[in-house]
User: What shape does this take?
Amino acid sequence: MKEIVFAGFGGQGVLTAGLVLSQVALFSGKKATWMPSYGPAMRGGTANCTVKYSDSRIYSPGQEAPDVIMALNIPSFNKFINMVKPGGVMLIDSDIVTCDTSVRSDVKVVKIPGTTIANELKNPKALNIIMLGAMVKLMGDFSEKEAIDGMNDMFGKKGKNKYEEANTAAFKKGFASV
Amino acid sequence: MAKGKKAPEKILRQVPFCPGCGHGIIVRLVMECIEELGYNDNVLIGKPVGCASLLDNNLAVDTFTGAHGRNGASMTTIKRLKPDMLVVSYQGDGDCYNIGFSETMNAAYRNEKFTVIAVNNGNFGMTGGQMAWTSMPGQKTSTSVNGRNVELSGMPIRVPEMIAHSFDTAYVARGALFTPAEINKTKSYIKKAMQAQIDGVGHSLVEVLSPCPTNWGLTPLASMERIVNELVPYFPLGEIKNKGGK
Amino acid sequence: MGDMVKGNIAMGEAAIRAGMHIYCGYPITPSSEVMEYLSWRAQEAGRQFIQAANEGEAMYMVYGAASVGSRVLTASSGLGISLKQEGVTYMAAADYPAVMINVCRYGDGLGSLESGQTDYKRETRGGGNGDYRNIVLSPSTVQEAVDLVYLAFDLSEKYRNIVVILTEGALGQMMEDCEYPPVKEVPFYDWAFDGKYTHGPYPSQMAVDLHAKGMKNNEKRALITENEQRWEAVGVEDAEYVLFAYGIPGRVVLGIVDELRKKGEKVGIIRPISLWPFPQKAFDSINKNVKGFISIETADSGQMLEDVALYAKKKGFGNVPCYFISSPPGVPKSKYVLENFEAIKAGKVKEVF
Assistant: This one.
């Protein structure tokens, strides 16, 4: 079973990025859970969600010891860096998380210039999908095609097919950045 | 106008109210209107908590036992789910205006298409004559033994006017029972209120000023005189709003 | 394969599929998505929806809706359900069915917006004045929430009794895949008011022999107790310790027991699915030499623990100590539960009963 936390400011799309990953997992025949922070945590301006996927029954849907954490702002980095399990990965947008990231020697910090890539794509809203592309590559559980198909299937069902091309491009850039 | 002396067939027996109480007349008027409108077999009466809960098992129509004051809410769903049924909420002023103020006002606010008969006797009859929001200034009750002090408890409430002037409802009127002519007028108000419901125009409410000799400590006749002299000047009679209908 | 769907929305859809005719409610976190979803979905499915002015009004709307024989749903959380209790007891007195979802938030009074299980006692004991019980079902996955809401309408009708779905903010807010059952179109129940006085005088609460009615209610409750116990059990036959947990903690503790048993530890779990009736039959399979019962709840005090102790006594485990692990608001952390379990095994924690 894999446990991933997506964290950032509200509006950066971290909850959506997590949902896409969980849907990709389902699309690939796995089981998945998605648990948002809500209520008081949400009102504070930061948001996070926990995604788990597995080939067998998922017991706890809550945060236990994440394998990977995606942090899209400094508060999220600081909040979650000590929660990553030993040997785990902290994935950050190095354009935003500019603080000292050498906090733990047993956690690998992967830095992606997500905001720069999004600006190059002239699609600043695609930061979450770019980072998700990088995440999927890091996890190594899904092929690029599998993940893109799962993502487009999800947005398609929500009636958002028009973003398919832009999302695919963003995902590919992210996937290639790791 | 009542067509004759014969009681409506859906009244099974005399309802056991106190001597001189107005409820008996009002129940009769309501049942006459239901019969004359042809709704004897397609009607539901919402019964409140209070003296009118004595309606129990004395009417051969579906009778819903409301929670105290809450019929505005319960009649809402009954009417929405059974739009062809004539739905009549029969309530006292304590039930309808005090504890049920929120439900009564919210049903009117939504313009729910049922009819409220609000019997205003100026006190909580069933529980021993405590002060109601409709009790008059200076009125002695078991919770205002020195007379209602409006400095502390406000002026008597006029819910029909509030509804008529605030909400987009169909029909609002206030009647009384102190002469046969007034009884006939009150019946015509009740019938028009029900007709407004049947025609789908909207929410309707008829308040009836009703004597409570037992708790007022007056004879039935003196009670009627009190209504004429003390209540009618503050609670004016007549139609307050009539949006139309047949 | 289903799609990821939020617990609250899945429960709303399950109600539509169970033939719900009308929803009456008032929004409150963390239950609001149930009514937000039904606000458009009910109309789309040809059903009705009312946003009430407050929780109490919503429950009296439910009361009215039940009286004419419709399938009616309300949903709320914690204190919102407190406001409904007068309506609930009126409905119990009238033997009216309805389904009420409590997406529980943690705490007394306003409480918090966080997930919790602090409403167990109220839901399983009735909640309002008088002497009635609601059937209480508690899911631990989104799929189970769907299945239980679907079942709840049938049970509610079968016994003419309110069925409470007691779930938690965490389950209402989380997403998981689920399969929906087919859509049912259910006619209004024929025992109800039809405007024709078909069923004669309404059995008024003031007019009937209340004690005789109470005795009849006891028979109904005995029947429900016999027929409607539901639970999931793992490893209790050889367990030295049996853990009790329902809802979200239930699934967390299932995972813990799974891990521990893989290591050879003799530990079991009973996950009650029906909270009332409490699954006392589950005790029949428990190892007679069990050393302790432990209730794990997202609550300050052991609420379900009292039922565990009561039925332990009834089932011949009266001398088995009953312990409590209080998990803070939210989803219990496995590590936290394990540490507390180790402390109990080491004799560092005093039993509650």
